[in-house]
Structure formats: C-alpha cells, structure tokens
Write a structure and sequence with these properties.
Layout: E1 4-9, H1 15-24, E2 37-39, E3 45-50, H2 55-61, E4 66-70, H3 71-77, E5 81-86, E6 92-99, E7 114-117, H4 120-129, E8 135-138, E9 154-159, H5 163-167, E10 170-179, E11 181-186, H6 193-211, E12 213-221, H7 225-229, E13 239-242, E14 248-256, H8 260-269, E15 273-279
Parallel strand pairs: 1-3, 1-4, 7-8, 7-9
Antiparallel strand pairs: 2-3, 4-11, 5-11, 6-9, 6-10, 12-14, 12-15, 13-14
Bound molecules: phosphoribosyl ATP and zinc ion.
Length: about 280
C-alpha cells in the first residue's frame, strides 16, 4: 500500500515536538537506534529523519512528500513547496542584534555595517526593501560571537528567550521574521498520497484546536445561571445539568486558552463555584 513520506528533524529543537504531534494524532511509531527512517504502525506514513536545512530540498525533489520545518528555513531556502499548516511550536524570531554599547536609534545606523548571519537571503531582502547598504557575511554557526571576535559589527540570528544575545553583550534592535514550525508539502501530491495528507491534516487540526481550548465545569446557583452562561460560549452553547441539590446546576463549556483567566475571574465574581478545568484531547467539528 502507498505510504506518505514525512521528513522530520533527526535531532534538535523540533524533534521532540514533531514526534509528539504524530503521537497526539494517534500515530504509533517505533524509532530504531539508527534513526534514519521508520514506518508508522497504524497509519500509512513513513518517517524520514533529516537535518532541518535539507528538508526543503527533499520536499522540492519529492524525496519526501511532506515535512516539518521552521518557517525561517523555508523562507531562506526558497524552494518550490507549499505550506499546509502552522504548528504552534518552535516559535522564535529572526532578529538583528548590535553590541549593547552601540547607540542605536534606527535602521539607518546599520548603513555600511558588516553583518554576520546564516540567513543571507532574508537579511539582504530586508535591507534592500529599506534602502540600507550593509555587507553580509554568511556563517553557519555561532553567529552571536562574530562581533566579539571582530568578524562583523552586528548579527542577524534566531532569538527565543534572548539570553544568548545577552550573554554575548548584544541587544536586539530589529525583527525580520516571526517564525514557528510548519507542515510543508511537495508542490503536487498524487492520489492516494493527497488523501493520506488530508487525513493527517484533519487530525493535526483537531489536535491544534484541542490544545487551544479547555473544558470547564462549574456549579452555579440557579438564580445566577442566566448571567453566568452569557459569559460561556461553548462550542454551540453551554450544557446545563441539574444537581441533586436543586438550588444549583452544573454548567459545562469549552473556553479558549487565551480568554481563559479573564472568563474564570468573571465567573467567580458572578457566583460560580467549584470550577474544574480539564484538558481536551481532540476537537472535531
Ligand atoms: O542539526 P540540524 O541542522 O537539524 O539542526 P540545527 O542545529 O540547524 O537547528 P536547531 O535544532 O537549533 O533549530 C531548529 C529550528 O528550531 C530552527 O530552524 C527554528 O525554526 C527553531 N528554533 C526555535 C530555534 C530557536 N528557537 C533558537 N532559539 N533555532 C535556534 N535557536 C538558537 C539561536 O540560533 C541562538 O543560537 O538558540 C539561540 C538563541 O536562543 P535564546 O533562547 O538564547 O534566545
Ligand atoms: Zn540546521
């Protein structure tokens, strides 16, 4: 039977979350010791373990059908492939940083500077669009040490917590790109691979939706019910069930993670009691 081939990072920052995503989609995999490739036990999927930088090329060539890779790599490599879904992990930004001592006012301060980066295309494009002329030095690793050893005046690199920049006496001054892991695919997938990809995407979207929402249960005195349910949208509308204690009802609903604490504070102040919050595994609408 035909299998869809998915490329994921062999080791590194995207590895654990990529495997977890497949597991959350109920796809069982056994990872061998050599970790070159493996086959899912209960879904038509073959998993290839690769360096993240190589994934876009393999997708363009059709060696892999789909792959999980940072948007930063995809945009830098400019291969003919499609982004199918953002995945919500591997979040970071591609930023320009300068020595702390530099009195940075605006982007014009970068005119004539030497900048070290592993992202020459994205940096060049950013400067060209802003009419800045800077000398770009492409280096493949440890970009943050370049100003300290006199290789460049400033850098452009990925940042998440900012502690690497801080430890190297640098400050972030411009953000070129907000990035996260994405699911990308070969430009055209034939039957039945297109169907398998749609099935996988359906599962991924259900898992993503569930992660962004919480199931909430609360007890509500009946005289407060109307007011309280106006704060609880639910998927269609909240569920209201009678309790043995006839003065109260149990209310069940689904709340978006981003609005969660605001809603809970309102519910408490309106008289909700015994609030329980549960994770949701999947949401299929
Ligand atoms: O071996 P392989 O080539 O596959 O891996 P790699 O070493 O090239 O990549 P890896 O595993 O470091 O990163 C894989 C992907 O994770 C990147 O392409 C991004 O999409 C994403 N990602 C998210 C990050 C970061 N956050 C990140 N902080 N990639 C790298 N960093 C590095 C950054 O380069 C800098 O050195 O972490 C340092 C900064 O981190 P903070 O927390 O100190 O700001
Ligand atoms: Zn890499």
């Amino acid at each position: 039977m035909d299998k869809l081939k998915i490329a994921i990072q062999k080791s590194g920052r995207l590895y654990e979350d990529s495997i977890k995503l497949l597991k959350d989609c109920s796809i069982e995999i056994n990872i061998g010791i050599d970790k070159l490739k493996t086959t899912a036990l209960n879904f038509p999927l073959e998993i290839l373990f690769l360096r993240d930088d190589d994934i876009p090329q393999y997708l363009e060539d059709g060696v892999a059908d789909i792959g999980i890779v940072g948007k930063n790599i995809l945009l830098e490599k400019r291969k003919k492939i499609k982004i199918k879904e953002t995945l919500g992990f591997g979040k970071c930004r591609l930023s320009i940083a300068v020595p702390k001592s530099l009195d940075y006012i605006n982007i014009n301060n970068l005119n004539g500077k030497k900048i070290a980066t592993s992202y020459p295309f994205l940096v060049q494009r950013f400067f060209r669009e802003r009419c800045i002329s800077a000398e770009i030095h492409e280096i493949s690793g440890a970009v943050e040490i370049a100003p300290g050893i006199g290789l460049a005046d400033c850098i452009c690199d990925l940042v998440s917590s900012g502690s690497t920049l801080f430890m190297n006496g640098l400050k972030e001054v411009e953000t070129i790109l907000q990035s996260e892991a994405v699911l990308a695919s070969h430009i055209h997938l034939n039957y039945p691979k297109n169907l398998i990809m749609d099935k996988l995407l359906f599962r991924i979207r259900a898992v993503k939706k569930a992660k962004n929402n919480k199931y909430i249960l609360l007890n509500v005195p009946n005289d407060r019910l109307e007011k309280i349910i106006s704060y609880l949208p639910g998927i269609k509308s909240p569920v209201i069930l009678p309790l043995a204690n006839s003065e109260c009802s149990s209310v069940h609903s689904v709340v978006n993670e981003n609005d969660f604490w605001g809603i809970v504070e309102n519910l408490k102040s309106l008289g909700a009691q015994d609030i329980l919050v549960l994770p949701i595994e999947k949401i299929i609408l």
